[in-house]
């Protein structure tokens, strides 16, 4: 069985808009989460899933595997 990790990343948070691109100790949060998740040896692949073009472009620039999704995929609570 192949294990793939998916990190869902949203830009449009009501409480903290833009949080994924905020730097923590000089590293953007989305990159920090990706680098930490990569340490899991059980996963064969890992990618970021986002509906936001800013996160998509950041991931592409940083060579982080990324998948463009639709905001229609968001779960309604």
What layout of secondary structure does this protein have?
Elements: E1 4-9, E2 23-24, E3 27-28, H1 29-37, E4 45-50, H2 53-61, E5 66-68
Parallel strand pairs: 1-4, 4-5
Antiparallel strand pairs: 2-3
Taking the alpha carbons of the first and last residues, their distance comes to 32 Å
Radius of gyration: 13 Å
Number of strands: 5
Major sheet: 3 strands, parallel
Tell me the β content: 15-25%
How many discrete domains? 1
Annotation field: number of helices = 2
List keywords for this structure.
two-stranded antiparallel ribbon, 77 residues, 2 helices, three-stranded parallel sheet, alpha/beta
Report what the structure shows.
With 77 residues, this protein is α/β, with parallel strands linked by helices. The chain has one domain (4-68). Helix content is 23%, strand content 25%. It contains 2 helices and 5 strands, in the order βββαβαβ. It has helices spanning 29-37, 53-61, and strands spanning 4-9, 23-24, 27-28, 45-50, 66-68. Strands 1-4-5 form a 3-stranded parallel sheet, covered by helices on one side. The protein has a two-stranded antiparallel sheet with strand order 2-3. Helix 2 (53-61) links the parallel strand 4 (45-50) and strand 5. The longest helix is centred in the middle third of the chain and has 9 residues, at 29-37. The radius of gyration is 13 Å and the shape is globular. The model has no long low-confidence stretch (mean pLDDT 91).
